[in-house]
Amino acid sequence: MPTDPPRLESRPEIEAEVAAMRGNGRHIAPVSWQGAPAWLKLAVAEPPAWRYQIQGAVARLLGLSALQPVRPRGGTAGIGNEAARLDALAAAGAHVPQVLARGADWLLISGIGRTTLESLLRHASGEARLAHWRTGAAYIHGVHAAGQYLGQPFARNLVWSPEGGLGAIDFEDDPLAVMRRDEAQMRDWIPYFFSTAVYFETDMATLCAEIEAALANETPRVRDGVARLMRRTAWVAIARRLPRALRRRDVVKTACYGELARQCRGRAGRA
User: Fold this and answer.
1) Domain boundary, last residue among 59, 82, 110
2) Superkingdom of the source (predicted)?
3) Do 36 and 111 touch, CB atoms closer than 8 A?
């Protein structure tokens, strides 16, 4: 039976909960902060550099600088990075969690909802599903129009609430550490397409038209950059040829994204 989240009213109570989370091996947990939903996040170790170095070398070899992997910062640097990104996005008018309190190795942020865009897409169909997709696309464009970027706008990281509308979570890395701002904005669209294409598997043509309409609102540099990234990653559609036994969820998403990129490329060629 689920238990109510810890009710926190003061900084000493936050520190006590941080100690309890460390003891239980947790790094993120829902809590109640002075009567309102919130999340308590603890610093985690920085992941090994070698895997990001290899991925970065491949991205550069393919001429895809906007798809360079961004290594999340660990420890106090990681907590500081997330707080800074949240503050910058909030100042630009984006709907993101508010930083409520911060320690050297923890961050308390407001809750912005529990329903992810991924869940909305999964349980909708037809025009309702398209409407949800457009809401996500409009959110990303709004962030870009304000001169900002997201970093990880997968559908699972876009969260809906009736009171606040759509918002974004997960800012443990900063793409500007390895790329330009316009490249970070180009990059934002790829995880969004990757994580949503699977819900339009039987109607890729419609999704291509929606993508074309969404990107029409971007700057020419970002629009052209996204088209280039999709052209150069369409080859991942080969994943659909894998044996059925290997078609796990991530493989299916990869195959659907590749097919989407292939069809959108063909659509652009006919335009």
Assistant:
1) 110
2) Bacteria
3) yes
2 lies in some domain: no
Q: What is the DSSP letter of 74?
A: -
List Cβ neighbours of 213 (8 Å cut-off, separation of 6 or more): none
Q: Which of 65, 9, 13 minimizes the C-alpha distance to 36?
A: 9
Rounded Cα gap, residues 173 and 191, in angstroms: 15
Spatial CA neighbour of 216 closest among 205, 206, 227: 227
Backbone angles phi, psi at 99, to 5 degrees: -75, 115
Tokens of 234: 């369409």
By three-state DSSP, how is residue 40 classified?
strand
Going by their DSSP bridges, the two strands 158-161 and 99-102 should be labelled as unpaired
Q: Are residues 12 and 38 in the same domain?
A: yes
Q: Are 111 and 42 in contact (CB under 8 A)?
A: no
Sole residue written with tokens 């991924």: 118
For position 38, which CATH number holds?
A: 3.30.200.20
pLDDT tens figures, 196-230:
999 999 999 999 999 999 999 999 999 999 999 99
What is the extent of the structural domain holding 261?
115-270
Pair 31, 20: CB distance under 8 Å:
no
Please give the tally of structural domains in the chain.
Answer: 2
